[in-house]
Design a protein that fits this description.
This protein is an alpha/beta fold and 387 residues long. Helices cover 40% and strands 13% of the residues.
Amino acid sequence: MIYLDNAATTKVSETVVEGMLPFMNRKYGNPSGIYEFADQSGKAVEHAREQVASLIGAQKKEIYFTSGGSESDNWALKSVMEQYKDKGRHLITSKIEHHAILETCAWLEKQGCDITYLDVDENGFVKMNQLEKSIRKDTVCISIMTANNEIGTIQPLYEIGRLARRHNLIFHTDAVQAYGHIPIDVRECNIHLLSASAHKLHGPKGVGCLYINDTIDVPSMIYGGGQESGHRAGTENVPGIVGFGIAAEEASRNMNLRREKELKLRNYLMKRILWEIPYVRINGSVKRRLPNNANFSFQFVDGESLLILLDSAGICASAASACSAGSKEPSHVLMALGMPEELAYGTLRLTVSADNTKQEMDIVVEKIKESVSRLREMSSEMADVEQ
């Protein structure tokens, strides 16, 4: 198997697995207990909190553990719009956000909030002039993702944060796809809320965090006990949190080396596909994109059929977000770029990791060439072009 769907999830590192195991059997105490055995779990959770905070320049007390990115996104937007409703009911986001943001915004609209969905340019960048013009007296929050999960485009966080500061707005960013892959400094970028998830950086599934800047007050979304400083009730997922902390520390320590290797593999893959296969385009920014992301649209090809052929060859890839799997609609991200619908249906997302090799990239390119050629032989549109 050649795994090229690391944007969907990553393999848990051996170090993370080893670090989690003791908290599944030997050190199984509830961190809320007051005896020494439970305190082992409590100290492990606090150490992980420090590791997760350090990766983005946050304080330990500003990290609140959740079940993952979707919960963090829901908590951030719902709580902020409730807490600051006296100021206004207007929120600004973009048309290419993850479904966890877009569906939360749809829910907020039903509760009486007004949402502005910003356009993006052909490379997926938010238009800063449109963003500033969208700000109103009743605007409470700007929520723009750090990097897009489908096309990899990295948004100008510093400029957005500076704009938010100038207008005294809360700035939330969904950093699920970017946390641990590129440098992020929440202070430098004036970020008040940030969502992250462990399984995108070789940590376990089912655990994430919400960074909440200590200058803002955000109420709980889950009520019950006093866990997470009274902000998020429920017994902590100690093994998952420990794994998240280790994954964050590994990402911090190895980020430059990992980025360099991923860039070489990704760029080699992109170069070969663009040079050797006709009627193909790269989606997203070429320069300002996640180091592991390559997103192509092949004309005269059905993307789902292409995925099936690649799967039969042992290659794991995707057409869009894992959360969109099974959808019959074209990607909302590609539609926002202004792509023709028929071309959007021929899209393939390949996301590498540092575990991949150049030899694997060569195999993948050959299989894609073979599969695209096979599918185009059955395409009437392709036949018309060649006549």
